[in-house]
Amino acid sequence: MPFSISPAHIWPVVMLIASNVFMTFAWYGHLKHKGSALFLAILASWGIAFFEYCLAVPANRMGSEVYSTAQLKTMQEVITLTVFALFSVFWLKESLTINHVIGFALIAFGASFLFKS
Length: 117
Prior knowledge:
With 117 residues, this protein is mostly helical. Helices cover 73% and strands 0% of the residues. The chain contains four helices and no strands. The chain has helices spanning 7-28, 38-63, 69-90, 98-112. The protein is flat.
């Protein structure tokens, strides 16, 4: 039977990407503003994380119709690394070294085995 792509294949990925953008800002966005009070960073992070959960929970529920939980978790980790790499370069203005790229690529390569039939 040929593989067909349905909205249940696509929307969880899109929603996990969006949720990771929110969560990355919740966890690391405050590092650009280290002068602000820690309790404000925590409150802001909680507020941002709310939107992450509003995307991640339905993404996983919808995605579980076509992906295994191991596949969903692996997808989440690869998306997290990708979003984090972009975030650290563009928001935090940190360098992405060849060692980062190689390490992330090896993780993504390992993760690809969960999607083999």
